[in-house]
Each structure stands twice: as C-alpha cells, then as structure tokens.
Amino acid sequence: MSQINPVTDLTLDGDVAVITLNSPPVNALSAAVRKGLFEAFKQADADGAAKAIVLVCEGRTFIAGADITEFGSAMADPQLADVQEVIEGASKPVIAAIHGTALGGGLEVALCAHYRVAVPSARLGLPEVNLGLLPGAGGTQRLPRVVGVENALSMMTSGRHVPAKEAASLGLVDELVEEGKLREQAIAFARKVVAEGRPLAKIRDQNEKLDAAKGKPEIFETFRKANARKFRGFLAPEYNIRCVEAAVNQPFEEGLATERKLFNELMSGPQSAAQRYAFFAERQAQKIPDVADDTPVIPVNKVGIIGAGTMGGGIAMNFANVGIPVVLIEVKQEALDRGLATIRKNYERTASRGGITADQVEERCGLITGALEMEALADVDLVIEAVFERMDIKKDIFTRLDAICKPGAILATNTSGLDIDEIAAVTKRPESVIGLHFFSPANVMKLLEIVRADHTSKEVIATSMKLAKKIGKVAVLVGVCPGFVGNRILGQRQREAQKLVMEGAMPWDIDRVLYDFGFPMGPFAMSDLAGLDIGWVKERSKGESIRDVLCEMDRRGQKTGAGYYDYDEARNAKPSPVTEQVIKDFIVKTGANPREVTDEEILERCIYPMINEGAKILEEGKAIRPSDIDVVWQNGYGWPVYRGGPMWYGDHVGLPKVLAKMQEFQAKMGDQFKPSPLLEKLVAEGKSFKDL
Ligand code: CAA
C-alpha cells in the first residue's frame, strides 16, 4: 500500500488498483483531495501490474461534492477538471464504487469513471441548484448523455438525491452490489469488465440520448412552463436548463465552455452567495455554544400530543412518519375521531399522489392512537401540548402533566408566543419544560422553533435538537419572548402593512411588492387564505377596523369567495372594488389623509422594521446568532432563500441605509421605529451582522 497524501491511499488488490479516499466528514473535493486523486490515478494508470482502477471512499459517504468552503476564493491546483481528465483518459477501466451520497462534484467525478457500481442505500444527485449554482465540472453535459434530457432537467433543477436503485434503472449506475461489500464487489466487477474486454466507456462520446432531443426546443419550453411557479425568482434553475440545451445543441467541448461561463456568472452573483450562506446557516443553527455535542440525550420512544386539531394532528404525523408511536389526547370522542380521520385523509392523499404506499398509510395510522384521559400519557417520553393559546388552560394542563408523566419525560408546549417560564413554573420540574413551536401545516413546514426557558436542561435541549433532525425539521433554538423570533419579527411587517393601507396603499399593492421581492404571497392574500375571521367575534364586532367591516359583510376570505380580494370558482384572486370602497370609506371615517405610497416605501416600511427587530432580538440574547434568525425566516415564513434572510439582507442593503430609514420613519411616525442600540452600534463601528 502506498500513501499518496494524508487523504488518499493506493493499493494493489491482485491486478486491480484500489484508490481509497478518506477525508472526513464527507470526502468533499478539497485541494488535498484533488491532489491525492490526481497523483493516485496517474500512478495507478502507469502501473503495469494494474489492469483496472477502483475508486472507493472511507467513512459515511462517497464524495459529497466540491468543498463549499473553498468557494469564493481561487482554487489551488490541480483543478477538478485536471483530476477528471486523468480519470476519464485512463488507459484502463476506472470503476467508481459508491456508498452514502455521490453529490455534485462527487457525481461529476463518478461520471468520468468508465463504470459505476453502488450499494442500494446510496444516493446520487446534482444538488448545486440548491446552492444557486449549476454543476460546473461537466455534470450538465454528461448527465443528459446518460439519463436523457428530461431526466437530467428534473434531477438538476430539483437537486434531488436519486436512490441507487432508481439510478440503476436510469443507467447512471451499472451494477448494484451488496450492502457492506462494496469494496470487494467493486473489485470483482472491475475484473469482470477486464475479462469481458468491455470498452473504456466515456460518457462524453455517448450522444444517442441527446440526438433524440435534437430539433425539439419544445421539450425545454414545456419544462420551463410546467415549473415556472417553482422556479420564480431563482436564477439557477434557468441556467441549469440552458446548459442542458447546450448539451443538445453544441459539441461536448463547446457545451463545457457554456457550462463554465454560466457557472462563473452564478458563482459571482448575489443569489448563490445567499444560498451558500443559507446552507451553512442551517448547519450552524444546530450548534449551541453551551450544549456540547456529546450531551446525553433522552431516548424518545413514545410521544403524547394534547389536542387533535389541525396542529396536534400535523405534529403527530411527523413522529409516525419515522416509526415513533403517538398517543393523541382530546376531551371529546367526537373531536378525537375527527382528528384521527383527518390524519388518515392526509396520508391517503399523499398515497394517492404516490408519496407513500397503501401499506405505509396503515402502518402510520396504526402508530397513532387516541385517548380521552391524560392518564394515557403516564409512559410517554415526550408530551407536546397543542391546545388553545390560553395561559390558564396551559397552566392547568402542565399541572396535570406534572402529576401524571414519568420522571424525566420532556414536557413541551407548542405555544406560538406565550411565556414558557410561566408555564414551567406550575410544575415541579421546570428543567423538563421546553417550547416546540411547529408551523402550520405541521406535517409539511420545515421549521421548528425550539424555545429554551430559564430552567430547561441541556439534555432536554440536546434531545429536542436531535429529535427535530430525525423528523426532518430544521430546528432553531430561541429564547422566551412574546412571539419568539419568527412571529415577533412578523408582527413588525403586519403592523406596517395595515398602516400602509390606512395611508393610501391598496392591499394588492402591498402584496405585489412583497410577492415580487420573493415571498410566496403577501400578508393580505395570506389573511384571505387563513380566514379573516380568525379571532373575530361577530357579536362583539363594531366595524372598528377594515377587517371587522369585511367580516361583517361576510367577506371572510377565500372560504366565502371574498375577503380583501374577490375570488372566482377556481379561487383566483382579483383586486376587489368592494374592498377598495370599504377602505376609502374607512379612511374618511377615521379622518386619515391618504396619499401616494410608492413601491419603494412599501418595501422599506415592511422589511426594515423586521431587520431592526432582529437586532433587538440579538441584543436581548433571544437568538444565538443573526444567521439563526435568517434560518427561521427562510424555513417558516417563505423568505426567498436567494435573498438570504432579513439579517443577511440588511447587511447587503447596508446597515447605514437601514438605520437612516428607521431614523427617518421614527421622526415622522414615532417610536415604533426606534432603532435598536445594536444597529446603531454596528453602524457606528462600520460593522455588519455577519461580524457578530
Ligand atoms: N463542502 C464542505 N463541507 C461540507 C460539504 C461540502 N460539499 N457537505 C457537507 N459539508 C460539511 C457540513 O458543513 C457539516 O460540517 P459541520 O459538521 O462542521 O457542520 C458536515 O460536512 C456534515 O454535513 P451534514 O451535517 O449536512 O451531514 P448529513 O449527513 O446530514 O448530510 C450530505 C450529508 C448529504 C452530504 C449534506 O452535507 C449535503 O447535502 N452536502 C452538500 C452536498 C452538495 O451540495 N454538493 C455539491 C457541492 S457544489 C459542487 O460540487 C459544485 C461543482 O460542480 C464542482
């Protein structure tokens, strides 16, 4: 065996050279990895005793991509293209042996091998689009040559990790080998290739699948149209599509040049910078400074949920999805039956779309049982209370949980803003109490705000963070304050949106500006969707707000066919002359003075106070770092990922500009706009949030 460099070994197994890469955690293509591979392949190719070469990786995965931490600075030689050239140009068959994930540059390396074998649990993909990029190492030109144009478009614009079995059916994997026997069976496969005299299959020379798409530009137009909503605002999907067009219409080398040019454009642009930031922000959020990685966790084998409404039911599904049994508690049999039926309906809908099998529907429904008595929670490891937002009810529930639940069980509340310390104080075990704030629909939304109260133990925090990952959520640890991080910041935007209407902007003007900024919908369209009558009581309504008036007219949102907007049968929204008149009358009634409101003002009034509130949250220590706030907003509130998040956006607009606007608004409209001392300090010191 010879060690090529600290991360690469080259050994000879009989007549097969085996190159082993070992660069934890994910064998990313750092400078050392590129150098090791380059030299190992050159040596193996020159070694007369080797008839074939196998590339295999140690640790949890095959190469998971370029080393993203190197992006943004000049890369040391050898470049990835040099490595790929020695692999593809080798004079003997090269076999990539894949386990874990072959992603991005990792798959692009494997696509230069002449053959690929994989274990069934492996997954292959080109996820660059999620970093605002495209595969810049020939992936856009090679993948469609293997899997065809439509499959390549779908893989590249979704970034999906394709399971090995599916990859084999697409021709991306030549042979599936047994789990745990990758190395030996890859070597055996290499011998078979040699014995059968199979050719050095170079993907770059395979054009049949591209020929099938030649002269059919409609393939691309149809794809663009079908995905227009999903791709809106993002540059990378369109650039990926253009590269596949180039693969079809240009010779291989020219296609590579097109890929390089478009890759460089994306890499130097603001969207990719924001999306790469988001990737690391999400991982950074998992690190809690005073909770060590090895903090013991509490085994969670059974969960109890109080409240079988939309929220409780959605939360229950998360646990059943990963095989954890759930007991759902309701006060009345009827409500419990309704809750369980809704869960079943949701699963059946997923199954009808092919998301899960009919067996899985039964399995998951079977894991969720119901009970009418809280005593059924005596043996659960975690309880999540998801009832009305009323402090007295919550206190009563936690008092009873304290008496019923076994010692060490985690007692969580799904409150979206109540004081968790006050709730914890009614128990004799405040160290076990934590907030687990799910977002609706809880079985879909990725964000989980984990709320640390004064006495929450580190074990309970560590367990909650790990459990969140297990159920596929993006967790962010926040502190107790009204609305926590997400809703507290949302409150700023909502307040300004309402005020702007009283100043002369129409709801659809405000929605349009925020939609164009990249949010999936504006606040008024959102209200119509959720129902204007949430929290509205007919008997007490006295026309004191525009919402009151609309509800009194039975314009209660999409469900009544009208709210701020008018809706047709297909629920398409149209600005409403009725609402416009209601607003105008209301303005006259209140003696306000409407004026022309510009789009620029709408954006600044809605967004800058959010940034300012984020600064206050940091100052109070309710979020650990600015990027955590951005993770909350990306995953829970539809902030466009290509704009980073409110704090990232603030840095990029420039904090001096944000501060100046807040001061201007404060002078005109009062202390709601008072700049946060942290914002003032950062500006005075010429710093930004990223310097914190
Ligand atoms: N470069 C550098 N570091 C990376 C990395 C990469 N490509 N991928 C993962 N890491 C790091 C993570 O930051 C994390 O570090 P910390 O432990 O310090 O936080 C560590 O590896 C483990 O990552 P995860 O926590 O994400 O582990 P996981 O097991 O949940 O997931 C994974 C593993 C599926 C590989 C996931 O990390 C992932 O999706 N990585 C990114 C893959 C990717 O996008 N590749 C394409 C890169 S761009 C490219 O290749 C361009 C090109 O064309 C040349």
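qc> The radius of gyration is 28 Å.
qc> done
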